[in-house]
Design a protein that fits this description.
CATH architecture: 3-Layer(aba) Sandwich
Distance between the termini: 56 Å
CATH topology: Rossmann fold
Helix content: 40-55%
Length: 156
C-alpha cells in the first residue's frame, strides 16, 4: 500500500485542465526576488506600518547583508537562525541568508533559553540574526555553543 502522498488522492478533485505536477527552474531561490526587481523595481515589496520599501531598495539591503554574512564566515549550507519578530529585518535576513548560500532556521523570539539552546543544537546553527532586546538571552548561548556569527539589528 502506498502512502497518501504517493497516491496523490487530492488530484482526483482537480479540473481536467489543472496540471498535477509543476516544473520549477533549477535556480537559486533568491532569483525570485531578483526577478521581481527587474519587473517592478519601484513597487512596494514591504509595507510595515506605512513605511514602504521598494523591490530595488529591498534587493540592495539583501545584497549588503548577504555580503556581511559571507564576510562573517557563513558558507554554502551553513544553518543561520532568524530570531526576529515579523518586521522588515526578518524579510531582509531571509533573502540574504539564501543569497549567501545558507539554510534558514526560523526561530520564535518568544522561546525560552532552554528552548533556544535545544533549537540551536538540534539545527546545528553556525550563524544567527537577532535584535537588541534578545542579546542578553542569546549571547551566553552563542558563546556556549560556539556560534561564530551573530548579527544584531534594532527595530528602531
Amino acid at each position: 500500500m502506498s502512502s497518501p502522498y504517493e497516491s496523490r488522492f487530492w488530484t482526483k478533485t482537480y479540473n481536467w485542465k489543472t496540471p498535477t505536477t509543476m516544473r520549477y527552474p533549477l535556480t537559486p531561490a533568491y532569483y525570485v526576488l531578483r526577478d521581481a526587481c527587474v519587473y517592478q523595481p519601484d513597487k512596494a515589496a514591504i509595507d510595515f506600518y506605512g513605511a514602504k520599501i521598494t523591490f530595488d531598495e529591498l534587493y540592495l539591503k539583501v545584497t549588503r547583508m548577504a555580503n556581511v554574512l559571507v564576510e562573517d564566515g557563513i558558507k554554502h549550507g551553513d544553518r543561520v537562525g532568524i530570531l526576529l519578530p515579523n518586521c522588515p529585518q526578518f524579510v531582509i535576513s531571509f533573502w540574504a541568508i539564501l543569497m549567501a548560500g545558507g539554510v534558514i532556521v526560523n526561530l520564535n523570539p518568544l522561546y525560552t533559553s532552554d528552548e533556544l539552546e535545544f533549537a540551536f543544537k538540534d539545527s546545528g546553527l553556525t550563524g544567527l540574526v537577532t535584535y537588541d532586546p534578545l542579546v542578553p538571552l542569546v549571547k551566553p548561548l552563542a558563546e556556549k555553543l560556539g556560534i561564530s556569527s551573530v548579527l544584531v539589528t534594532s527595530l528602531a
